[in-house]
Amino acid sequence: MSVKDTLLTGSAHVNGVDIAYVDKGEGDPVVLLHGFPDSHYLWRHQIDPLVEAGFRVIAPDLRGFGESGKPQEVEAYDMRTIVNDVVALTQHLGIPKAHIVGHDWGAAIAWMYAFLMPRRVDHLAVLSVGHPGVFSTPSIEQRKASWYMLFYQFPGVSEQLLRRNGWRLFKEIMGGEGDHQRYPRELAKPGALTAALNWYRANRSPEAELRVEGNFPPVLAPTLGIWSTGDKALLEEGMTGSAKFVKGSWRYERVEDASHWIPLDQPEIVTKLLLGFLGTEKAAAVPTRRRRL
């Protein structure tokens, strides 16, 4: 990552991996979690406005991305492991409770963090990706939109095909969206592409669908779900169907004229929605008994 593409302020070794992060501002903490194939830099348009509004913003490079550690083993990217990264990082930074905001895989992590660690969540905001309870039984339309997840399942083969001919296939999959010009440079770094694909291999493999899922604990925090009409990967039903898993207050916002990368395509709208939501409602009462990951 070039100097102009980073806002990082620190790094910590937590949960067995080095996690680079932004820690900026004072006040109630907000943790911003990115997805594939991004880094903290996804949130560059939201960080300063949140700081100026009186929040302390923490935006990590999640494991496998950006300047954080990149284990090469598939099992290193299990969702519970990554949730524990976030827990460990917030503990390292002295944060017992925070607003949690996530996009793409970051939203999936945010959902799990919220229902497994309710005492550590004030408000929850999720962009693009709905509750895992909805995605565990996807419609055929959603399966068609998620075709690339199956393509990413072949270690070595996926990497070679995505890199071939100047990353042509990867660029076609991206379709000129997000930070599409920067992603190949980042994924070309040693171990980066395999690490990024391992998120899918650890959590969205065909075998994963055979796992017996227990009942999901309800999300007790006030929750904001944001989906964009130009999202080619996720259907609206995934977000609207998430309401039944939220026991706290639920709010849904549909953003027009944005691809899957809402924080980049409609930065002012995303910032306005977050500022209008975080801290405006009383957090739900949470159980005193801590859930184990």
Automatic annotation (TrEMBL):
Ranges where the AB hydrolase-1 domain occurs: 29-266
Pfam family, one: Abhydrolase_1
Classification via InterPro entries: AB_hydrolase_1, AB_hydrolase_fold, Epox_hydrolase-like
GO-annotated molecular function: hydrolase activity
Keyword Transferase: no
Keywords recorded for this protein, A-Z: Hydrolase
PANTHER family for this protein: EPOXIDE HYDROLASE
Protein name: Pimeloyl-ACP methyl ester carboxylesterase
Lineage of origin: Bacteria, Bacillati, Actinomycetota, Actinomycetes, Pseudonocardiales
